[in-house]
Design a protein that fits this description.
Shape: globular
Strand content: 15-25%
Distance between the termini: 26 Å
Order of helices and strands: EHEEEHEEHHHH
Largest sheet: 6 strands, mixed
Strand order of the largest sheet: 2-3-1-4-5-6
Radius of gyration: 15 Å
Oligomer: single chain
CATH superfamily: Pyruvate-ferredoxin oxidoreductase, PFOR, domain III
Structural class: alpha/beta
Number of strands: 6
Helix content: 25-40%
Length: about 180
């Protein structure tokens, strides 16, 4: 079984890319793993590009930067154009097909097209496409137990507002159940 999981998450600012990375990192902490979380974003607030590198490992981590992820998540076309070829052979790529029209030509990775933005919006969960994607990632790339990831998602509800936890859990379940 793989002992190190590397994630590169990319999209526009405001899509919850850094939040998604934080949930992954907290899930790693809950499992007592070594981890790194490295956000990167442009000077723009919303609408600018951002990405986040996350490493969860049983071993010491040498560098926080992820250049060849075992799991790539792209939430917009510019991120797809920049990072599609970066996934390691045998890895996983998750694409928000609501916002990315291109198809990956990679034959050496498992590619999942998830209309995360559309699924979130159609279910009254605007702004939770990142959590829809998290559900799909947990189903297809089981890096940690699903229960741990859900616990990390709940821990990120700083004000412990039940409605936020309920909405996040609903978005996660939609992504987890998505068959595409």
């Amino acid at each position: 079984m793989r002992t190190t999981h590397t994630f590169l998450l990319a999209g526009f600012g405001g899509q919850g890319i850094l939040f998604l990375g934080k949930v992954l990192a907290i899930a790693g902490l809950l499992e007592d793993k070594e981890l790194s979380w490295l956000p990167s974003y442009g000077p723009e607030m919303r609408g600018g590009t951002c990405n986040c590198s996350v490493t969860i490992s049983d071993e010491e981590i040498g560098s926080p930067q992820v250049l060849t992820p075992s799991c790539l998540v792209v939430m917009n076309q510019p991120s797809f154009d920049k990072f599609d070829k970066s996934t390691e052979a045998g890895g996983f790529t998750f694409i928000d097909s609501s916002l990315v029209s291109s198809k990956s030509e990679r034959k050496d990775v498992s590619v999942f097209y998830v209309p995360a933005t559309t699924l979130a919006n159609e279910n009254g969960l605007k702004g939770l496409a990142n959590i829809v994607m998290l559900g799909k990632i947990c189903r297809e790339y089981p890096f940690l137990p699903k229960e741990t990831v859900l616990a990390a998602l709940e821990k990120n509800n700083k004000k412990q507002i039940p409605e936020i936890t309920e909405r996040n859990n609903k978005a996660f379940a939609i992504g987890y159940a998505y068959e595409g």
